[in-house]
Amino acid sequence: MPPIYIDFLNRLDIEELQITDDEILAAVEGGLLSQGRGETVIEPRMHLEPGVANGHFNVLRGAIKPPIDSAGVKIVGDFVDNYKLGFPSELAMLALFDPRTGAPKAILDASGITDMRTGAVTAIGAKHLARKNSKILGHVGARGTAYWNVRLLDHLFDFDEIRVHSRRPESRDAFAERLSQDLGKPVIATADWKSCVEGADIVVEASRLDQPTPMLKTEWIKQGALVVPYGTMSAVELSLTDIMAKMVVDDWGQCKGGKFGSLRAHVEAGKLSETTLHAELGQIVAGLKPGRQSEEETNLFWHRGLSLSDIALGHAMLEKSKRLGIGQRLRFA
Description:
By secondary structure, this protein is of the alpha/beta class. The chain is built from ten helices and 15 strands. It has helices at about 10-15, 20-35, 110-130, 145-155, 170-185, 195, 250-255, 265-270, 280-285, 305-325; strands at about 5-10, 40-50, 55-65, 70-80, 90-95, 105-110, 135-140, 160-165, 190, 200-205, 225-230, 245-250, 280, 300, 330. The strands form two sheets. An eight-stranded parallel beta sheet has the order 9-8-7-10-11-14-12-13. A seven-stranded mixed beta sheet has the order 2-3-4-5-6-1-15.
């Protein structure tokens, strides 16, 4: 048997890549384009609950045809009490394989990839579904993915006003300060949900609830806004879907099943179904379905996280690491 080598990128390697906002968005949008064209295979995510802590593992699986030409599996832990230990709530690993032989190609620290690709999907969804002149962002949640949501959304829209909220004052204040320094503009930390999201052009709900609780009220959403709810536990009212002109998801196969997700109750109640669903985001990116068509539309985008986005961004990072000579090459067999 010929030798098999794998590329390995740890967290320090990925930081050294200094991947740019535009590189992240281009990689993830390329993965969505492939999905929309039917050039991918995606399996619904699976969950593993160890039962020894307040959290679970997500197992995401997929494959993308050339030029990316990789199959991949990402395992990401989602443990909400990790902050007490000084750990991020999400720690992840991505493994890439040759789809023709099954030979492993690479292992990457995927904690940063998870955060970046989540923010990119949020931003690309807004690119196609929000008003082009959106100037006010209301963001609930301050975990890792939240930073990239705000950063990449602002990269596309250059907001006049950014509001953020999270349950713990020290968390939201530190989050607002970090964003203000990195974005070079004021970021407002609000004390409650209403003052954060009411009247905003784009509303992102990335909260960390222990159980479904309707914290975000439908009446706070102004006409013409885009709402992006993706918390593990639902924080929205059942009536939220009633005001929507278009409802878009990242992958209907993932969204229609499982016990977790911000719109799980809406699926079970039939408010979000194959009949009421407008499109998957990949179909819009590929030009097969329209995005926003008027200023008056109030739209919703629910994404649960795509293995395809992990694979596409991981592939882009590997290509850049080879150009820059970053990372390690390990003998596998």
